[in-house]
Fold this protein.
Amino acid sequence: GAGVSQSPSNKVTEKGKDVELRCDPISGHTALYWYRQSLGQGLEFLIYFQGNSAPDKSGLPSDRFSAERTGGSVSTLTIQRTQQEDSAVYLCASSLAARTTDTQYFGPGTRLTVL
Amino acid sequence: AQTVTQSQPEMSVQEAETVTLSCTYDTSESNYYLFWYKQPPSRQMILVIRQEAYKQQNATENRFSVNFQKAAKSFSLKISDSQLGDTAMYFCAFMKRKRGAGGTSYGKLTFGQGTILTVHP
């Protein structure tokens, strides 16, 4: 595709359920990032993947959050036992590599609402 | 840790006029990059402009320019000839220049809280 795509666009779930959010990066981009945008915390980094290297999970807020990237392309962010404070927009970005000269291109995000 | 502060939650400007959005940051790093991103109602973050900290010259992209004051740790965005399509939330962001294994760098962004800009006809 021409840009980063994310699905679903919106997700409403009940407290305690698990959710999976998907990100399709731009073809050929080896670096992939997840960010979270919430009213209380603003935009915050969650996790980063670069090629076959071990991901940097330093931004994940709790062990209920996990992410994987299969085949160096599609990534899935999983939130287990969702809580109301998990309600936010989850943004994915990709870049050609992880050089600081590489522009990060963002997807439209997934709006998660936990009831 | 780095922090980025945008002290203007909301700004408004008339079409064709000029507006300046403020951003300050705090870091002990000497090598870094600064960015302004735009987020329209569609939620898609779009890079507006970037500045390398080692460059003294202020970056310019068409109607968008920055005033980078490294000593003051200030990075403001000036939008000239404002257009209705400029209405969006604007985020200032910081990226540490870090070298990892293999000579690659790492691009985690630290964002400010954002400024909602409304351009009025």
